[in-house]
Design a protein that fits this description.
Layout lengths: L2 E5 L3 E4 L7 H9 L4 E4 L10 H12 L9 E7 L6 H9 L3 E6 L19 H10 L3 E3 L13 H16 L5 E3 L5 H9 L4 E5 L1 H5 L3 H4 L16 H12 L5 E3 L8 H4 L14 H11 L6 H6 L1 H5 L8 E10 L19 E6 L2
Parallel strand pairs: 2-3, 3-4, 4-5, 5-6, 6-7, 7-8, 8-9
Antiparallel strand pairs: 1-10, 10-11
Length: 344
């Protein structure tokens, strides 16, 4: 049986939700990842350091005994964010940065930013205090095709931001297009990107061909195959600007399989195995360790993990559903096979 040992990975983009859902989501991630950047799009959103620390305590209460897990909290950037709050965030080891959600871009983003241009004073303060900006990079204008929203956001907002604030650390989250790959590659060393398993393993055919598949629906939406291939090439290139961020986003089955069709893929139960599947498909398992366990820590100027995990080449089938306190949830890749499994 073949095996692969890598440093314990980190998830640089994660949704845990709150309340009873934490009983399911926290143990699933903590079993694999040492650190995770936790998204703040709750209701109400997590906009202050105080609220983030309260949320973090709720998360830590669900970490299984004996497991070392360090949630790093992102704060929700709004038009009311102050330079004082940014200074407090910079001084707190449990806060990783601020998350920019364009209003209406994804789940629980109604409180998001309506004018990126108006953020200039806030971004200046973030640059001064060396607080990273984490970006959901899509415009939400009704006249912009949903498949073009990432590209337009980059052109309208991200290029001007990086030109005006060259020392601002910026992560373009869950990238989906060749445009995003080129933007990140060509930007300065303060710009990086996270990549999800679904955008590496699938394209929009997997969402739409043969009927709509709600459990493959996420935002930003899956794009055409040529964009998927551009992402794959970036991940396989060994460029340290691209690293793991699952964007695992839990929704119970009843919420996903409705007319609203909540956006998000719950990949946490098989997260590292899904990435191993991708790298294995491309005969590049030697690239997994840096992508999953190294480049993200380097970008955030944190020490690489010294603990290790072991993956074994052992076919297994992802569960059809996961039971939660609020109802069954269908995980990403449900009922399908993977070739690598975490030994544990």
């Amino acid at each position: 049986m073949q095996s692969l040992t890598i440093p314990r990975p980190d998830d640089w983009h994660l949704h845990l939700r709150d309340g009873a859902m934490l009983q399911t989501t926290v143990p699933a991630t903590a079993a694999v990842f040492h650190r995770a950047v936790v998204m703040p799009n709750l209701v109400p959103p997590v906009t202050t350091v105080e609220a983030a620390l309260t949320y973090r305590a709720q998360i830590m209460a669900e970490v299984p005994a004996g497991v070392r897990f360090n949630p790093l909290m992102a704060l929700y950037l709004t038009a009311d964010t102050t330079s004082e709050e940014i200074a407090q965030a910079a001084a707190n080891q449990h806060v990783i940065g601020f998350k920019l959600y364009p209003s209406g871009a994804t789940t629980n983003s109604a409180a998001g930013v309506k004018s990126v241009e108006a953020l200039a004073p806030v971004l200046g303060a973030m640059q001064e205090h060396q607080v990273p900006l984490l970006v959901h990079g899509e415009v939400t204008d009704s006249d912009i095709d949903i498949f073009d929203r990432e590209r337009v956001f980059i052109e309208r907002h991200l290029i001007p931001i990086t030109e005006r604030f060259p020392n601002l650390k910026l992560v373009l989250e869950h990238i989906t297009t060749a445009d995003a790959v080129e933007f990140v590659k060509n930007a300065n060393s303060n710009v990086a990107a996270t990549m999800t398993p679904q955008h590496l393993l699938m394209n929009r055919n997997d969402l739409l061909v043969g009927g709509i598949r709600p459990h493959n629906y996420c935002l930003p939406i899956l794009k055409r195959q040529s964009h998927q291939q551009a992402l794959q090439q970036a991940a396989l290139s060994g460029n340290p600007k691209f690293f793991l961020g699952t964007d695992s986003a839990p929704h119970v089955q009843a919420s996903k399989e409705t007319a609203c069709g909540c956006a998000g893929c719950y990949s946490a139960p098989a997260a590292i195995e899904l990435y191993a599947e991708f790298f294995s498909q491309h005969n590049a398992l030697d690239k997994l360790a840096d992508f999953a366990s190294g480049y993200g820590a380097d970008f955030y100027q944190l020490p690489r993990n010294t603990e290790t995990i072991e993956l074994v080449q052992q076919p297994w089938t992802v569960a059809e559903t996961v039971d939660t306190a609020t109802g069954p949830m269908v995980p990403y890749w449900a009922g399908a096979d993977l070739q690598w499994k975490l030994r544990g």
